[in-house]
Amino acid sequence: KEKDKRTEQISIMDMDSLPLEHVEILIKVIPTDDEIKKFQQFIKDKKNPKRLPSADKFLFDLSNIERIKPRLQVMIFMGNIEDDLQLMVPQIDAVIAASRSVLASENVKKILEIILAFGNYMNSGKRGG
Fold first, then answer.
1. d(CA 38, CA 60)
2. Residue 79 neighbours by CB distance under 10 Å
């Protein structure tokens, strides 16, 4: 029952009852393509998956979750987004402060005026300029 509960939590991407640490472990143990083919052959051979050992039964259950790897990747992203955003706040604040400083700088305005005047001078002798 516990394993059925976990596969259901993954299927509905329930981050409230499936801890991020479990999701990070699950993504490392999801069935490979070869294992999925073996499970499919197992079913084609009309064998009962309930007779599999518990670890194999769990992998079998995981193999039946549609797009399991992308689901787990999204769950990990969702679980980490708060921390990632908190790490970016100081960097964003630094970019904003630098932008404000450049906008308020008289020296930058003077340099741009010189560049504009030089460009105008260079274009003044040309036709269409």
1. 10
2. 16
> pLDDT class for 50, splitting at 50, 70, 90?
confident
DSSP class of residue 1 equals -
First CA to last CA distance, the chain: 79
Six-digit token string for 126: 């040309």
Cβ–Cβ under 8 Å, residues 30 and 68:
yes
Distances (CA, A) of 68 to 5, 37, 88, 95: 15, 15, 29, 38
Nearest CA to 71 out of 32, 17, 3, 13 is that of 13
Is residue 69 within 8 A of residue 30, CB to CB? The reply is: yes
Model confidence pTM above 0.85: no
6, 36, 1, 3: which is closest to 23 by C-alpha? 6
CB-based contact 58:3 (threshold 8 Å)? yes
- Report CA-CA distances (Å) from 78 to 15, 16, 69, 91: 8, 11, 14, 21
